[in-house]
Specification:
about 425 residues; Rossmann fold; six-stranded mixed sheet; four-stranded parallel sheet; 15 helices; binds pyridoxal-5'-phosphate; binds zinc ion
Amino acid sequence: MRKIKMLQCADCGKEHDFDDNDYDCTSCGGNLHVIYNYNLLKKRVTYRELENNRNRSIWRYMDFLPLSSGKKLPVPEVGFTPLYRSEVIAERLGIESLHIKDEGRNPSASLKDRASAVVVARALELGHKIVTTASTGNAASSLACVAAGTGIKTIIFVPKTAPAPKIAQLLVFGATVIMVDGSYDDAFDLCVQASQEYGWYNRSTGYNPLTREGKKTCAYEICQQLDWEAPDKVVVPVGDGNIISGLWKGFIDFHKMGFIEKLPKLVAVQAEHSDAVKKAFEGDGEIKPVSGKTIADSISVSLPRDGVSAVMSIKDSQGAAVSVSDREILNAVGELGRETGVFAEPAAAAAFAGLKKAVKEGKIEDGDTVTIIITGNGLKDINSAMKATGKPHLIKPEIGALKELVGKHNLANGG
Ligand SMILES: Cc1ncc(COP(=O)(O)O)c(C=O)c1O
Ligand SMILES: [Zn+2]
């Protein structure tokens, strides 16, 4: 593919041929980055062309994706998610502006659809019949969703703790689901072994270099929605670290193309006991395993699979990292819902909790324009959501009972 120069290892720098290598570095097992020929891309595409492109999905960015034809594509439309402005929260936090990128509006209700769509399109180009992945839940449900109707079968490895709605999505989309009696990390290792044994194409995050390529389209959209400007700060929930490194890649692409003038600083948000990337960023850069325990299942990771690239993205952007407790995450679910109408799953709400923490710790300043990435929809984990909220009122179907309730809680005036 002429637009792609090579794949390059994030750890040791070794170069690989794009068409000869589907997964990680053959020397050190590090994650590979897709390196584009920007001179060629500059001749092929201008920001005006992107602006006038009527395609309302990530496929409008086909020139920047590692796909040759785009003739066979998944059916569900991925991307083009809304970017809301919240003046109320911006004012309260004392920042210049706040935008909320609602990735829960993707077909399977998470940002992961961007990655899965690119991986499935590549699998179709390569003629694969089976795609597998390990996942805490969202990557799997997105893979099963975008593979539906393409003729590709999906075989999914999830830890048995994955929330039921995500499992329901998988089954509805026709995946074969293998629940592993162990952690996400166990599921990951088993999935790699399975793909080596049976030749299944593997989408797993941090193993397949194309997931980052799909996720970067979220950054492209933010730039376009902000009229070809990046915000000062982008706040991102981090587990494996692939979303944050994908976003960075997206901003870098558009910067290299001359579509945006300045790059944003990335603020990584991790759960308190699932903070290997934060620790590495603030320490010696080395990723060391942590317990990974948090209510936010999608960012519950002991050993991040794309940790090196995640730390690099935070450092290169001169960004910062914060950690948040499970209580702060649950409070953020409710607060975000009440104040913006966006229902976030705990991992996604962590971005909002992290924003508040970053403001408190002086990592986000008064004049900053900020975008937070709400990476997945709250309906994916209603048990956690119910812990974040009060209970409904239960009454007899009688006006007397209603009057009693209205009086008790002053509901006549809104409560
Ligand atoms: C909703 C949600 N938020 C955040 C993340 C974290 O992304 P990453 O593991 O690439 O850091 C995930 C990953 O599963 C997710 O599903
Ligand atoms: Zn390497």
